[in-house]
Amino acid sequence: MSIHKEIKKVTTHTLLKMKAAGEKIAMITAYDFSFAKIFDQAGIDVILVGDSASNVMAGHQTTLPITLDQMIYHAQSVVRGIDRCLVVVDMPFGSYQSNSEIALASAIKIMKETGGHSVKLEGGAEAIDSVKKIVSAGIPVMGHLGLTPQSIYKFGTYTVRAKEETEADKLKKDALLLQEAGCFALVLEKIPAALAKEVSESLSIPTIGIGAGGNCDGQVLVMHDMLGINTEFKPRFLRKYLDLFEQITGAVQHYVKDVKGRYFPNEGEQY
Fold first, then answer.
1. Which of 28, 62, 179, 262 lies at a 20 to 30 A Cα distance from 53?
2. Which residues of 49-68 are buried (b: 16+ CB within 10 A; e: fewer)?
3. pLDDT in tens, 157-184
4. SS3 178
5. Which of 176, 186, 242 is nearest to 210 (CA)?
6. For residue 219, which phi and psi values (nearest 5 degrees)?
7. What is the SS3 assignment for 65?
8. In the annotation, is 189 catalytic?
9. 140 preceded by cis ω (within 30°)?
């Protein structure tokens, strides 16, 4: 009789326990089956199916063009690759901003069609009705404050947010509002480290930082950035763990050379 080892799944509750225990949360983006499978087996806690797919998968300048159905396609692919980590799916621009009814319909569609575990949406006070509506339907919501890329045309730039006192105060209030509305976690993007520390300490739910210093309860990076597939994007907060651009380029050039030089396939590589 084979004993099947029980896989301990990461849930929203797990993340709350990790924060309480002081254990950091590791989150990464993924958009397809193959990478999701690798990340899940490598021990990542959370996979974010990011609307950054708009940039890194589809080649758009901003996250705005990606549609709900495209996000669902990416999330379905990711969910098929995982056994244990928590999957968070970004709600794309336009799928929740107009009113809470539309937001709920979008979130339900994501959950029903992807098998994902939760959704993420951007914004504070202005998104509270949508958050409450989605949470009351039993769907876990991760919030997102600071630099909110879907609002890029409002900001006009991707620089650090909440350096001024008014914006910092609003962010602190928004964080508490999102917690009260039922968010299970919050992404804090590109805000001063001291502010992120203060916000993280004021909340009972975990914060996940990106460019927000080391005192958040977890960190998230876009896979294409941390694996060095992207070469153009070099913000201060990014640590490149690999240079896949170089390695892949070298491998493909080698393959081209082998094909053209008749070194591939050799006799052992044919039937």
1. 179
2. bbbbbbbbeeeeeebbbbeb
3. 898 999 999 999 999 999 999 999 999 9
4. helix
5. 186
6. -135, 150
7. coil
8. yes
9. no
